[in-house]
Specification:
223 residues; alpha/beta; Rossmann fold; 17% strand; globular; signal; Flavodoxin/NO_synth; Flavodoxin-like domain-containing protein; Flavoprotein-like_sf
Length: 223
């Protein structure tokens, strides 16, 4: 009973890992900025880097929203968006992972994520992209945790130099939209250019395929 009450308290709004969705429409910012306006030409070297930490799909109907099943295939919500971008753009794809894996338990994951946030802990990454300098366009994907990017994303921006590169963000959320993360990225990477991204509720991720393609076409990033 206590476990159920604890989960309900979290759902009331204390954490954005699973907060009930209040904004189901995808958010692509204030109008699309075509890539031709930012980086001349179309022969881009594209990287899709994403952080996805799907909770076990046997926890309950709400926490399993971090996973989606499409055509019988199981994905993390951010992973699914990254996969569509990968197929549509022909870019390379890499998952951002921490050296110390996150707990699989929802309660433990929520607690660790909050501790990292409160103490500004940037966890060490296991991901290593040796040819990062070769990419000029980088899609960056993440979920919203505690109303911000997971702290592993700050580690990612610490580790790599984005100066002169074009960043295209995408995210999934539980109702908070971008939650200020676009401003955070712009502050972290002032020497990069950012094109309008794509943010969608986890509740709608499984049916987002066409919307993602429309967004990519709008910014001139279809292969």
């Amino acid at each position: 009973m206590k476990k159920i009450l604890y989960a309900l308290a979290l759902l009331a709004g204390t954490i954005c890992l699973v907060v009930a969705c209040s904004n189901d429409e995808p958010d692509t910012g204030n109008g699309n900025q075509d890539m031709e306006e930012v980086v001349p030409g179309t022969n881009h070297k594209i990287l899709i880097a994403y952080f996805s930490q799907p909770l076990p799909n046997n926890v309950d109907a709400v926490t399993s929203a971090s996973r989606v099943t499409v055509n019988g295939e199981l994905y993390g919500s951010v992973q699914y968006v990254a996969t569509i971008i990968n197929e549509a753009t022909g870019g390379d794809m890499v998952r951002i992972q921490t050296l110390q894996p996150y707990p699989e338990s929802y309660d433990d994951l929520a607690s660790q994520a909050n501790q990292e946030r409160q103490n500004n802990i940037h966890p060490e990454l296991a991901t290593n992209i040796e040819n990062f300098d070769n990419y000029d366009v980088i899609f960056i994907g993440y979920p919203i945790w505690w109303y911000q990017m997971p702290m592993a994303m700050y580690s990612f921006f610490d580790k790599y130099d984005f100066a002169g590169k074009t960043i295209i963000p995408f995210s999934t959320h539980g109702g908070s939209g971008w939650s200020g993360t676009l401003e955070d990225i712009a502050e972290l990477e002032p020497d990069a250019t950012m094109v309008n991204g794509y943010s969608i509720s986890r509740n709608n991720t499984a049916t987002s395929h066409d919307g993602i393609l429309n967004w990519l076409q709008g910014i001139g990033m279809m292969e």
